[in-house]
Design brief:
With 196 residues, the chain is of the alpha/beta class. It is 46% helix and 19% strand. It is built from 8 helices and 7 strands. It has helices at 15-31, 44-53, 58-69, 86-94, 119-130, 152-168, 172-175, 186-194, and strands spanning 2-7, 34-39, 72-80, 83-84, 104-111, 134-135, 140-143. Strands 1, 2, 3, 4, 5, 6 and 7 form a 7-stranded mixed beta sheet that branches. The longest helix has 17 residues, at 15-31.
Length: 196
């Protein structure tokens, strides 16, 4: 399986890349996936050229192909002005319209304070819903104070588990914990009523 990580961090080192690497390691461990990282910082000029002339450069074309061919995708952006970065959005603007249709995607973001954590729900989730991706329920946000604190590793593990399950083709219904309660599918229940 192939897992592609899109990181929109601008600095080196980058907390965005650090979060991307943690999510990738946790997912790859569960899904036995080969990981490829796409650093958007290195593609900024080619992305801008593609927006103006309609043709991707060699490196950008390879990145777009990797994203399109991936079995699962992790996307991580820093928060700028209460939303994803322009570079992040521009990359997904040059991607083919149906490239992410049905593709499992884990969304994540980093920022200076927890006040921006809703960026995942008001910006990233709608973007990937529009692109018809299958976004895992758990999104991961890491503020500066989250590094080394309790909670972030658990969110990373939960999100990685959800993504790896989707990459393997498991439905959440099939993998749901029932707590020892026997669950009868609705169609089966209806069929038993009609036999009476």
């Amino acid at each position: 399986m192939k897992l592609v990580v899109v990181s929109a961090g601008l600095s080196v080192p980058s907390s965005t890349r650090l979060l991307a690497d943690r999510l990738a390691a946790a997912t790859a461990e569960r899904a036995a996936a080969e990981v490829e990282v796409v650093e958007l910082r290195d593609l900024a000029v080619e992305i801008a050229h593609n927006l103006t002339n309609g043709f991707p450069g060699r490196k950008l074309a390879a990145a777009l192909d990797a994203v399109t061919a991936a079995d699962g995708l992790i996307v991580v952006t820093p928060v700028f002005s209460a939303s994803y970065s322009g570079l992040f959005k521009s990359f997904f603007d040059v991607l083919e319209q149906d490239a992410l249709a049905g593709k499992p995607v884990l969304i994540a973001a980093t920022g200076g304070s927890a006040r921006h954590s809703l960026v995942l729900e008001h910006a990233l989730r709608p973007l990937f819903a529009y692109l018809r991706a299958v976004v895992v329920p758990t999104a991961v946000y890491a503020a500066s104070e989250d590094w080394g604190a309790q909670g972030l590793p658990e969110r990373v593990d939960r999100a990685a588990g959800e993504l790896s399950a989707l990459m393997k083709g498991l439905s959440t219904a099939g993998g749901a914990k029932t707590g020892g309660i026997e669950v009868t599918p609705f169609a089966e229940r209806l069929a038993s009523l009609s036999r009476r």
